[in-house]
Amino acid sequence: MDALKQGIVESVDGLGDDLAALSSRIHAHPELAFEERRACGWVGEFLAKHGFQVETGVGGVETAFRASLETGPGPTLAILCEYDALPGIGHACGHNVIAAAGAGAGAALMAMRDRLPGGRIQVIGTPAEERGGGKGVLVDAGIFKGVDAAMMIHGFDRTLLHQDLLGVVRVTFEWAGRAAHASTDPWEGVNALDACVATFNSVAMLRQQMRPDCRIHGIVAEGGAAANIIPERAVADFNVRGPSLDAMWALYRRVVAAAEAAATATSTRLTAFQHPDVYEPLRRNQPLNDVFAGNLAAAGLAEGPAAPDRVASSDIGNVSQVTPTIHAWVAIAPLGTAIHTREFAAAAVAPTARAGLLAGAKLMALSAADLLAEPSRLAAMKEEFRRR
Ligand SMILES: [Zn+2]
Ligand SMILES: [Zn+2]
After folding, report:
1. Can you give the pLDDT at residue 388?
2. Residue 257 Cα to ligand 1 middle (Å)
3. In percent, how much of the chain has pLDDT > 90?
4. Strand 325-331 vs strand 149-156: parallel, antiparallel, or unpaired?
5. pLDDT score, position 1
């Protein structure tokens, strides 16, 4: 390892107690999407203390920030921090570790700034991953314009440099009918629940023709007021997921068509509301993955067993659609620990999480150093990004 990389590893280790404390503090004060005022403040303060210029409220989002380090002309690399929690179960997705790892990567690069090749490091605080899609808002606000590569880590029960993340579009269907006594005058009613049930049945049949890397799941949010009243209103929420934008939107149109057909069949009126916070699919960038792969061992990590069928979605996908991006999973919990569980929340402040946090910080900082030092790798990333 050269002196720069050795220095990065030592800097992260030297910051170990501070980073673990930052992570624990965020964990102890879970804040929901777009309400992460304390977490955003603490991470920003940490970076300012280490010499970063910190802007808060970037992109018009109160709990977003951008902390910048510039060492001369060169590429711009973004290191992303999430810090929102889940309702009821706190930091069961371990975003406290993501925040501290991003802060640690930034601080280590700052500590080595005299040896860093020219370029800009931006540590970007991206709120509301669990709900609302903060990164999509920041993309739309132009925060990632001029960013040559974006990187983040996410805690998991194993280390994986890439795991597919499906795009997800959410839709709410409302069918309007007419109420009537369900025994005395049922023929006077127009049954909105029938439209809802017919939609679920059509979607169930559609699943057989779906590719295995797509998902559709839904709930009945409203299905009537009482069994002796023909339901005048029914509401269902669906999530439609696909591995590419084309696949996701094509499947979405089929689901909307099912709801429309159900409305026709039942003489109800359909209102379909497509929620604006679309999470786009993660676009893989192999040259960027290769840079990370080259630093895994130096960060003290090794890839775990692949789990290709465990696919989720994240707003990091929106970033990956506009610039080369990596979302690496880093083991912070014992193998077999599922995320969004109370077990994972407990693991996110255990000693294994500290080890994963420091390893994740090293992995990102070492890879950022490579990208600044070797323009050919950046060129390869951009070439692949254009081709796909
Ligand atoms: Zn989550
Ligand atoms: Zn998460």
Report:
1. 76
2. 30
3. 98
4. parallel
5. 76
